[in-house]
Specification:
The protein is mostly helical. The chain has one helix at residues 18-69. It has a domain at 20-76. It has 1 helix and no strands.
Amino acid sequence: MIGRASFDGPVTPSYPRVMEQQYVTLLAGLAGALIGAAASIATVTVQAYYQARRERMRVAVEAGSKTSRLPWSCRHVIPGHGRFNFSR
């Protein structure tokens, strides 16, 4: 049949299509797992950053409030010498 196209029905691939579906499912699952892991790591990193920031602020405020309750002369202690510095 030269010059004429014949249609014998749907063309089926020589390999089973089930394998393609399994690979698509596998890749989708792996992609979802990677995205979930990346989101968890990002969340932990951001939380750790802001927790450390809050802790530094708490320590600074606590130190400032302790200093403000001391008499004026006690605020100027020379570190490591144990005596007062009244020259300030």
